Amino acid sequence: MTLLRDTKLMFVRNMQHTLRSPVFVFVSMFQPLMYLLLFMPLLNGLGGVPGLPSGKTVDVFIPGLLVLQALFGTAFVGFSLIDDIRSGVIERFLVTPVKRSAILLGRVLRDAVVLLLQCVLITLVAIPFGLSVNIYGFVVSLLLYALIGITMASISYGFALIYKVEDALAPTLNTITLPVSLLSGIILPLALAPLWLQDLAKINPFSYAVNATRALFAGNFQSIGILEGFVVIGVLATLVFFWGVRSLKKMAS
Amino acid sequence: MVIQTIGLRKTFTSKGRGGKKEVAAVKGIDLTVKKGEIYGFLGPNGAGKSTTQKLLSTLMCPTGGEAKVLGYDLATQQEQIRQNVGCVSQAGGADLSSTGVQNLVLQAQLYGLDALTAKKYAAEFVERFQMSTFIERPAQSYSGGQKRRLDIALGMIHHPQLLLLDEPTTGLDPQSRAYLWGEIKKLKDTGVTVFLTTQYMDEADKLCDTIAIIDNGKVIVTGTPSELKSSVGGDTIVFSFQTEETARKAEALLTEKVPKGKVQTKNSSVHLTIEDGETMMPELLRSLDAKNVEAQGVTLSRPSLDDVFLKYTGRSLREDQIK
């Protein structure tokens, strides 16, 4: 019960921070919107290649684009934590009996809520581009996006707690986000890739998330890929979250 | 005892070129802090003051030794210690983009208080520390003194029995310092025990009931400010006279009058070192007068904690600060 209460306190505190400068919620949607406007037209021309049925490019592209947003939109949240470490805010929280996991949980849940808002907005923008989406599938996929966001945010916070300075954080996060996004078939379908690349993609947890959300958007609920996506990302999110909590506990000692 | 430590140690391991390196920040500290006192932990930068405070506030785990805080074991009862101890770090830790009130209310809630009580406690501290004129503004707009008041209120919001203050007045203007000293002294009346680290001699002297001088990770000496000062020798009274001849006469008289004192004549002035200079001075002057030995001037100098630090470490505290 204390965990629930502490998490709520921390969530509200972090949400207040976000709402103080809400413009950044929209600024970080710029990247996916650019992909939508300036890159998708290219894909349309490719329609018909393996993994990209002609006329349905947008239906395949958008679920992956939202995974991209979940990866990059939350990857850099660690910078705000470094701010809080430097100003002594985190230490001030840590001298109270507040649950350690709540300090992090309040943050990642805020990040997840911001991400979901962005996902909904991007999806709405994509509808005039011809997107047809199964509404139930979309709602369920939001859960998966939230899990991806929680995963990336936890990784970002974990490294922020280890480094405590900005210099090392940005290159580390780029090193993680770039290969996992390239290896998940978001920009171009993996069906086009040589075998070795396809094999490599199989060890990338986020490629399962992309498959799962594509199935969900299409309303393809029997697909085993949906379950795979949830299991893989669910396990990963749990692991990295507790790794982050461990970093928090170890921060000072 | 509010704080009792035996051989408290903290060693940091840093990985660098050439393998692991161990740095001992706190090298076995024994402390006994009594209920209701202001305990000063005095030492130069890097002496291990903040590390000790972090150990006592459960922010760090000790490498060795034992400690009880408010009767709770530091190794096993961290939850209870956190609930009952207040802590103000050097950085302070106020959330700068939030208002003072938001900071205070959240901090109270983190100690388990419900929203209503949290607001009540916040209002109480706003009044007590005279913060009403600025407390509704974001903390980033505060002056140094205002921010420090908020920091200390944040540490005390849950009415702890023990308050740990890490260099509360470092970097403040004289007026804000004097104000905070007054507030810290008032804490004694409410029965709160204060553990205060400082690098200022005058601060330790004015505020503390007991002082432990720490240098290089070790406590060098402990005592009340007056005990420490008398340990470096007593007060010095300097009598100055018109001629060296008169001075000689005075020297003979004073040696007779205070056999325990140390009397020395330099040119036309006599230096007398005794335990209780202040109360002895009028009497000594009268007895010189009675013999028609007229002093032209008298000065009394008392040993300072600077002298204490110099005696026990061989260095002046100020030298360290310049470095």
Span of the ends, CA to CA of chain B = 37 Å
Mean pLDDT across all residues of chain B, rounded? 90
Strand order in the largest sheet of chain B:
6-7-8-3-9-10
Number of helices of chain B: 12
* Chain pair sharing the greatest interface: A-B, 23 and 29 residues
Count of individual helical segments of chain A: 12
Helical coverage of chain A, percent range:
over 70%
Which oligomeric state applies? heterodimer
Tell me the total number of β-strands of chain A: 0
Radius of gyration of chain B: 25 Å
Beginning-to-end CA distance, first to last residue of chain A: 27 Å
Please report the total strand number of chain B as a whole number.
Answer: 14
Shape of chain A: elongated
Summary keywords:
heterodimer; A: 253 residues; mainly alpha; 12 helices; elongated; B: 323 residues; alpha/beta; four-stranded antiparallel sheet; 14 strands; 39% helix
Structural features, described:
The complex is a heterodimer of chains A (253) and B (323). Chain A is an all-alpha fold and 253 residues long. Helix content of chain A is 77%, strand content 0%. Chain A has twelve helices and no strands. In chain A, helix 5 (78-86) packs parallel to helix 8, helix 8 packs antiparallel against helix 11 and helix 11 packs across helix 12. The longest helix of chain A has 29 residues, at 135-163. Chain A is elongated and about 60 Å long. Chain A starts with a helix and ends with a helix. By secondary structure, chain B is an alpha/beta fold. In chain B, strands 6-7-8-3-9-10 form a six-stranded mixed beta sheet, sandwiched between helices. Chain B has a four-stranded antiparallel beta sheet with strand order 2-1-4-5. In chain B, strands 12-13-11-14 form a four-stranded antiparallel beta sheet, covered by helices on one side. The two termini of chain B are 37 Å apart. Chains A and B meet through helix 1 and helix 6 of A and helix 2 and helix 3 of B.
